[in-house]
Write a structure and sequence with these properties.
With 434 residues, the protein is an all-alpha fold. It has 17 helices and two strands. The protein has a two-stranded antiparallel sheet with strand order 1-2.
Length: 434
């Protein structure tokens, strides 16, 4: 994916901020909201899927993670399509695919059908971020890009928020199948909105042959700096997505013993902390840079905080303890604070995108980000499925719940991969980085 330079801009190729927000930002943000909603909803509806379809932990992890697998598979061709046909056409049509996937999911009676539906959803939302980032570069003033990008990331975080306590509330009035019918209609509406409202950028097709673009992608994957920082993200961010999108719910229910409403409240707090983390990640990086760290160093610090947050979970810090807040009469479980830390810290390794943006020339930034994104979502698939496979090595009790040890080992295995990535990042091998 390429970006246009300011020197080629003429007045008709830029919109005023209000018009750009209305015609470009808002349609894409509506779709990105549902992208995150789909990503995290299974953490709340997992008990329903177990009861109605009879899926076990490994199958639940596999069908949930299918979203990440197909999402990752689309990233490389997506960049080429966006440059050739533009974000409006590509993502407008893709959200239509996501709507079909949501509709099929609502009718799923077996794991195979649910996996196919989840795969279609993953394909459909695969360009929700990259298409919008390209459109933002095309239509917004250059000096406002960082601000608008932050707003756009926040729109996805609101989708993750909606897939927690609000989703639990909605399930009091409809079952999960009816919910996905509503989601299908809403996603189709977002697709139509993008196709009808978002303008096309004149003369914005990518130059160069397909062969040359593929060659440059190979050069990105051979870059030593790429392999220094990207493992921090495809372990830290991927683990966070796998846990927030699925395994946080079963941990809270079966390890901490919380009821469904309290589980949803914990996921809400985690999602809100993620929203704060996304909004403040740039401030976090800038503060560390003022202290003398590079942007890569800020990425490493974010990875350390992510590891620390998950260690607090597996050591069950705060379990059985409460705290009070002004204006709230009932005491709150201290685990809310732990999961808020997980949600906040898990967003910080996304700073790797900014580090790659500083490292690669402008013409390769899009492909550099896409190359990293492939690995993030492939690893997310591995974590979601792998954690379920580990948990299933233990025998469930009569009620279908798995022992604490099963979840602890699954989480520790995930943390171990993050530790390996951090050690690789700091290991002083001369000539490996540049």
């Amino acid at each position: 994916m390429t970006t246009e330079t300011a020197s080629t801009d003429t007045p008709p190729t830029r919109l005023s901020m209000p018009r750009a927000m209305l015609l470009v930002f808002a349609p894409f943000a509506c779709g990105y909201f549902f992208s995150y909603f789909y990503r995290t909803a299974n953490a709340v509806i997992a008990p329903d899927l177990r009861a109605d379809v009879g899926v076990g932990p490994a199958e639940l992890g596999l069908l949930t993670a299918t979203y990440f697998l197909t999402f990752a598979a689309c990233q490389i061709p997506l960049g080429l399509l966006l440059d050739r046909y533009g974000p409006r056409r590509v993502q407008g049509l893709l959200y239509g695919v996501a709507a079909l996937g949501a509709l099929l999911f609502s009718y799923g009676e077996d794991v195979s059908t649910l996996m196919l539906a989840r795969a279609l959803i993953g394909v459909g939302v695969s360009g929700g971020l990259m298409a919008a980032l390209k459109a933002i570069v095309q239509w917004f003033p250059r000096e406002r890009l960082a601000l608008v990008n932050g707003w756009y990331f926040a729109s996805g975080a609101f989708g993750a928020l909606a897939a927690t306590r609000p989703l639990e509330f909605a399930l009091q009035f409809m079952d999960w199948r009816g919910l996905f019918v509503v989601l299908a209609i809403a996603t189709a509406a977002a697709a139509v909105l993008i196709l009808l409202v978002v303008p096309d950028k004149p003369d914005s097709r990518a130059g160069g042959s397909l062969r040359r673009q593929v060659q440059e992608l190979g050069e990105i994957y051979r870059d030593p700096y790429f392999w220094r920082v990207v493992p921090l993200m495809f372990t830290g961010a991927s683990a966070n997505m796998a846990i927030q999108g699925l395994w946080a719910g079963p941990w809270l229910a079966e390890v901490d013993g919380f009821g469904r409403e309290v589980v949803a409240n914990h996921l809400l707090v985690m999602a809100f902390a993620m929203l704060v983390g996304v909004s403040l990640s740039g401030v976090f990086a800038a503060a560390l840079q003022r202290l003398g760290l590079t942007l890569a160093g800020a990425c490493g610090t974010g990875a350390l905080l992510t590891i620390a947050s998950l260690l607090l979970v597996v050591t069950r810090v705060g379990a059985g303890e409460t705290f009070s807040l002004p204006g709230i009469r009932a005491p709150l479980e201290a685990t809310y604070l732990v999961w808020a830390f997980v949600g906040f810290s898990g967003t910080l390794t996304s700073l790797v995108f900014a580090a790659l943006g500083q490292h690669f020339p402008e013409a390769r930034i899009g492909r550099g980000n896409t190359a990293a994104n492939v690995m993030v979502f492939l690893t997310s698939f591995g974590y979601q499925f792998g954690m379920g496979a580990i948990i299933e090595q233990w025998t469930p009790d009569a009620g279908g719940s798995y022992p604490v040890e099963a979840y602890t080992v699954a989480f520790l295995a995930t943390i171990a991969t993050m530790v390996v990535a951090f050690v690789w990042f700091v290991w002083p091998i001369r000539g490996r980085y540049r």
